[in-house]
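Supplementary Methods S3. Input chains for the assembly prediction are listed below.
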Amino acid sequence: MLVGEMSQQECKELLARLGFGRLACAQENRPYIVPIYFASEPDRLYGFATMGQKIEWMRSNPIVCVEVDEVRSPIDWVSVVVTGRYEELPETDEYLKQRERAEALLEKRSLWWEAGLAAAQTRGKFDRDRAVFYCIHLEEITGRRASPDPVEASPHPART
Amino acid sequence: MLVGEMSQQECKELLARLGFGRLACAQENRPYIVPIYFASEPDRLYGFATMGQKIEWMRSNPIVCVEVDEVRSPIDWVSVVVTGRYEELPETDEYLKQRERAEALLEKRSLWWEAGLAAAQTRGKFDRDRAVFYCIHLEEITGRRASPDPVEASPHPART
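Predicted structure tokens for the full assembly:
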């Protein structure tokens, strides 16, 4: 197995392509992880959530970690880890533009997701007051790629 | 979308079946996530890593979070979140039995992984002194399952 560092460009491309990963926040040194969908820009990620432990914890401690990966096997994977800072995008004039940007990007990203939320909303199960748009400002990004050795990749070479 | 709690039994079954997830640790309220493979028993998970930030942080703060999920779409997923406590299994007489148990379970779980490590070891790229076996004692487990509404699940009912 060969493990190498990914460039910043490769890391950002993976974030943009996957748009799905896990976010960890922490309170009193207790970490907490949840899966998230997001839309990405070069310097930030946009996300959406309903109120709950994740939002409460990020409000009290905005330092978060986001990880995305593609794991095909323990010797064949890519993983990008982002350290970032949470900022909420409330429905106020100050945040109007950022919020519109977030909504537009998230909608573009996954229409079927919006459709799902809209469907839930229609049936009165989605509480708009509990909907939170947020962004994660990217502060540090690192990525690693593992690939099989050429020997491992061809365990059964053709016999001559 | 309907979201419901999973029973403890369902959560443990998902952990045992997947054997793969993400682990978060924290230091000075900064969270850090990495993907991990593990073997599970009803009260603990066994894992294996080479020395690095994750192990250093867990040594200084053993409170960790492990999350496993199967996400088919934003309205169709299961996610289990475990809060646990890290314990290292060093190569000492005191930990011999636990370590043998961990090695046996991990080997059973993923022979191809062991094969990959063995291959790396053979070529002198795997440093045994940097290999760490550990267990995560399960303290709190919660799980949630989201499923489409019957209406969402059949968006195109047959016309009569």
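Chain B has one domain: 2-146. Residues 2-146 of chain B form a domain with the Pnp Oxidase; Chain A fold (CATH 2.30.110.10).
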